[in-house]
């Protein structure tokens, strides 16, 4: 798999790289087509967030999926980077926000305290229209800001703090909350929180997985929770998969849990509000 280019130099192609690149190009074409076709093929899954004190349903995180005509269901780890590079993240992000808020409105009729969490990337945050768009989508759906949490990840350039704080404070005036996703996996963790007006941190799954066997992780998570509480930050523990992990976390008292132990992310028609609420209570007695 070597070939001569125009200047008689050897260029190597690794077949796996080539195939991966080809698959990416195909997927990008499918994503572009789907956006043009009124976002056909995109859907949202919802994963419950559970209050640790009472095991009541607090809300859900919206997670995007793409159904590829050739390959079936594709996960965001694969297609979100393509959306980011191609500029499609902006329209798809708007679709996610719109769809998640419309769904939230329906669930709040049964459970008025229900909150929806929506992931937002920096490509979206850098878009000048985003501040007004979020507020107008809430209005369209007759929702107060307190129905929405926006999840962002750590690790932005220092010069962007001012810009982000301006957006965040406009949102916070309306009751929208800001959450730092995958907390602990980036750098500058705690310094970051002081510079930005954050309401919640989501401790990454990698610290939760097998926590009952790791004195180090248990201490780490315990310290994060202590520091967060002293700054009036809510803590959500992500990726709780087992009863043993839950038992270890119970001693630390975060505010929220999210993970396969409670439920996988499910399509909205499988998100049965009443039975979920009942089940969590029974599960945790
Ligand atoms: P995230 O925001 O940290 O979402 C949590 C991820 O962990 C989800 O993966 C979820 O399915 C998975 N998860 C939840 N509980 C468990 C558990 O107990 N065990 C395990 N092994 N996994 C668990 P998913 O849906 O594949 O999403 C991956 C990432 O893609 C998200 O991470 C988020 O960063 C990004 N993403 C998803 N939807 C959107 C979106 O609408 N917009 C943007 N910008 N990014 C999104
Ligand atoms: Mg998230
Ligand atoms: Mg996360
Ligand atoms: Mg993430």
TrEMBL record:
Residues 24-279 form the EAL domain. This is EAL domain-containing protein. The chain holds residues 266 to 550 of 550 of the full protein.
């Amino acid at each position: 798999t070597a070939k001569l280019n125009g200047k008689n130099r050897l260029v190597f192609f690794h077949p796996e790289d080539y195939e991966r690149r080809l698959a990416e190009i195909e997927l990008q074409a499918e994503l572009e087509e789907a956006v043009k076709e009124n976002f056909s093929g995109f859907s949202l899954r919802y994963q419950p967030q559970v209050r640790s004190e009472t095991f009541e349903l607090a809300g859900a995180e919206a997670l995007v999926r793409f159904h590829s005509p050739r390959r079936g269901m594709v996960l965001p780890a694969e297609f979100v980077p393509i959306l980011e590079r191609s500029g499609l993240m902006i329209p798809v992000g708007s679709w996610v926000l719109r769809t998640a808020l419309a769904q939230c409105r329906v669930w709040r009729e049964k459970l008025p305290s229900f909150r929806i969490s929506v992931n937002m990337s920096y490509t979206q945050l850098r878009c000048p229209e985003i501040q007004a768009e979020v507020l107008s989508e809430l209005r369209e759906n007759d929702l107060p800001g307190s129905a929405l949490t926006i999840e962002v990840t750590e690790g932005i350039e220092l010069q962007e703090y001012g810009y982000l704080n301006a957006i965040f404070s406009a949102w916070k005036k309306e009751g929208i909350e800001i959450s730092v996703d995958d907390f602990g996996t980036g750098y500058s963790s705690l310094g970051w929180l002081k510079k930005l007006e954050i309401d919640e941190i989501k401790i990454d799954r990698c610290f939760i997985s097998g926590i009952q066997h790791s004195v180090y992780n248990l201490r780490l998570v315990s310290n994060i929770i202590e520091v967060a509480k002293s700054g009036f930050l809510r803590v959500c523990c992500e990726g709780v998969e087992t009863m043993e992990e839950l038992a270890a976390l119970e001693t630390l008292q975060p505010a929220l849990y999210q993970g396969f132990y409670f439920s996988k992310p499910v399509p909205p028609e499988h998100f049965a509000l009443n039975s979920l609420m009942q089940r969590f209570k029974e599960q945790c007695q």
